[in-house]
């Protein structure tokens, strides 16, 4: 097999099919992260009590029971908002970090064939200089 044909085939594969597959992989990773952190569910239930914890009001005319139920339910909603906000912040940090890593991977992937050639030439220069 001709080495020139092999090199040409590799370059064509590297910048076409492999690049498309790389974008598909990163797309799947972002879809996974959005599903893992459940953005839709978190946004729909943002003002709901945490784990549906709360106190039911029996319906009797008792101001203390009404006030107690109101306080407990308000606190559980605040706890839910706080925890959901923390989850949203953490998920945004993870997704942003993954996006930066994806850009870095893309940059390395695009310059990789050039780096191989440069490293090869640099290695030859070191060998020639040493001997």
Please provide the count of β strands: 0
Q: Choose one word for the global shape.
A: rod-shaped
Sheet with most strands: none
The termini sit apart by: 33 Å
Low-confidence parts? none
**Order of helix and strand elements from N to C terminus:** HHHH
In a nutshell, what does this entry contain?
With 131 residues, the chain is an all-alpha fold. The chain has one domain. The chain has helices spanning 3-15, 17-36, 39-44, 63-130.
Key descriptive features of the protein:
131 residues, mainly alpha, 4 helices
Write structural notes for this entry:
By secondary structure, the chain is an all-alpha fold. It has one domain. Helix content is 82%, strand content 0%. Helix 1 runs parallel beside helix 2 and helix 2 runs antiparallel to helix 4 (63-130). The longest helix is centred in the last third of the chain and has 68 residues, at 63-130. The model has no long low-confidence stretch (mean pLDDT 88).
């Amino acid at each position: 097999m001709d080495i020139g044909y092999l090199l040409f085939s590799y370059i064509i594969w590297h910048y076409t099919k492999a690049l498309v597959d790389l974008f598909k992989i990163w797309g799947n990773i972002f879809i996974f992260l959005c599903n893992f952190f459940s953005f839709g569910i978190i946004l729909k239930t943002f003002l709901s009590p945490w784990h549906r914890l709360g106190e039911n009001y029996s319906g009797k005319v008792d101001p203390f029971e009404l006030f107690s139920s109101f306080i407990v339910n308000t606190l559980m909603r605040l706890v839910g908002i706080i925890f959901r906000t923390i989850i949203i912040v953490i998920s945004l940090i993870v997704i942003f970090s993954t996006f930066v890593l994806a850009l870095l991977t893309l940059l390395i992937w695009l310059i990789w064939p050039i780096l191989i050639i440069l490293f090869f030439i640099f290695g030859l220069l070191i060998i020639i200089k040493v001997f």
